[in-house]
Amino acid sequence: MPAGDNKILFDCFKPRIVPPHLYIHIPYCVTKCPYCDFYSAPIESLPNPDIYIDAVLDELSFCIGKFDTIFIGGGTPSAIPLKTFERLLKKIAERLKSGYEWSVEANPKDVTSELVRMLKDYGVNRFSIGFQSSSDNVLKRLGRRHSQKDNECAVETAVNAGFEKISGDIIFGLPNDELEKTLDFFLQNNISHLSAYELHVEGNSRWNIDGYDPSVSDEEKMKCMEKTIFILEERGIMRYEISNFAKPGFECRSHINVWSSGEYVGIGAGAHGFEQGIRYVHLPNTKEYVENKIVEYEDSNKLKENAIAMETMMLGMRMIRGIDIEKLSPLRKNALMNRKNILDSLTADGLIEIFGSIIKPTSRGLLFVNEIALRFA
Ligand code: SF4
């Protein structure tokens, strides 16, 4: 997020009516994977999870309203003790709108019958499992702490507990990553949603710090994605966003809200949120979060119109269905409508298509989302 002059401190610990979409970040992991650039850390290096959940619940208590979508991500939410996790689930269960979608992420190694029963009992209805690969060799090279046997047990346990909406993450882009085997595992197990991410060694990941990058070329990664699209779509699991696939009706509503420039509450260290036109990010520092409750934010109401248009397109053109400008806030709608010449040039270049109020990327445009957005800079 560009900070610029708008960067100031913001107190999320104030009572306010909030949007009906909630993201909670649990930065705890058992071990840190060497390719990972997310804000997460081994459990023993962070404050006691109970103290962290106290702070999260404290922040949640200032949010007035019920939630239509909830996403508890990380990190690894399943890495914290069950009793601690239960305290969070209990509070959220009191705040659900009818027809809600509630997702929780887990590592396959942590998927026990106790965990899934607890999630089901409190009303979690979408379970996202970090399988990453079906190859033990690849899992080992990625530094993952689970095996394909754990992946298989995790699906079985989740299905037996009655989860119909199961999502899985995979990573591709290591040499000889046995991608077909991984996709076959998804298809065999009838998994309804898949997030397929390219391996990128970047930021503060250990591999990047060590100057180690085992990933294949961009061209080969593109071929992997083409293969993934072909195999999944042939079986009715459709690509609905650059990296996400689902059976019709199983798309993640929580993510769609974010890509549609919808507002949402973000709670926890490192969590992003977007309320009243203000994008904020909690400092990626759990100790600071627990002790000082400081959040940085940027008031996008004060952003220049071109930056708003750029941000809207950067998010919205990730989705195959694109965006409906009639459903955007007046600020965003105007930012795009006042740049009709840019929209026309993107259309002429074959990067987007416009049907009435819908703006969507072409299949070529999906390869150039950053370039599309930068035209508005
Ligand atoms: S990849 Fe996932 S499990 Fe591994 S360190 Fe990052 S957040 Fe934790």
Keywords:
377 residues; alpha/beta; pyruvate-formate lyase- activating enzyme; Arc Repressor Mutant, subunit A; 2 domains; nine-stranded mixed sheet; disordered N terminus; binds iron/sulfur cluster
Short account of what is shown:
With 377 residues, the protein is α/β, with parallel strands linked by helices.
Please give the largest β-sheet: 9 strands, mixed
Low-confidence stretches: 1-6
Ends apart, CA distance between termini:
14 Å
What is the mean pLDDT? Answer: 94
Percentage of residues in DSSP E strands:
15-25%
The CATH superfamily of the largest domain turns out to be: tm_1862 like domain
Taking strands numbered 1, 2, ... along the chain, how are they ordered across the largest sheet? 12-13-11-10-9-8-7-3-14
| CATH fold-level topology of the largest domain | pyruvate-formate lyase- activating enzyme
CATH class (first level) name of the largest domain: Alpha Beta
Structural category is alpha/beta
Oligomeric state of the chains present here: single chain
How many distinct helices?
Answer: 14
Which second-level CATH architecture of the largest domain applies? Alpha-Beta Horseshoe
Estimated radius of gyration: 20 Å
Description:
- Helix 2 runs parallel beside helix 3, helix 6 packs parallel to helix 8 (218-234) and helix 11 crosses helix 12 (330-337).
- The protein has a 9-stranded mixed beta sheet with strand order 12-13-11-10-9-8-7-3-14, sandwiched between helices. It has a 4-stranded antiparallel beta sheet with strand order 1-17-16-15, with no helix packed on it.
- By secondary structure, the protein is of the alpha/beta class.
- It is built from 14 helices and 20 strands.
- The protein has helices at 49-61, 82-93, 113-122, 136-141, 148-160, 179-188, 206-209, 218-234, 253-259, 286-292, 305-316, 330-337, 340-348, 369-374; strands at 8-10, 16-17, 21-26, 28-29, 41-42, 63-64, 67-74, 96-106, 126-132, 166-172, 193-198, 238-241, 244-246, 265-267, 272-275, 278-282, 295-299, 323-324, 352-355, 358-361.
- Mean pLDDT is 94; it is low at 1-6.
- Residues 29, 32-33, 36, 38, 40, 74-76, 107, 130 line the site of iron/sulfur cluster (SF4).
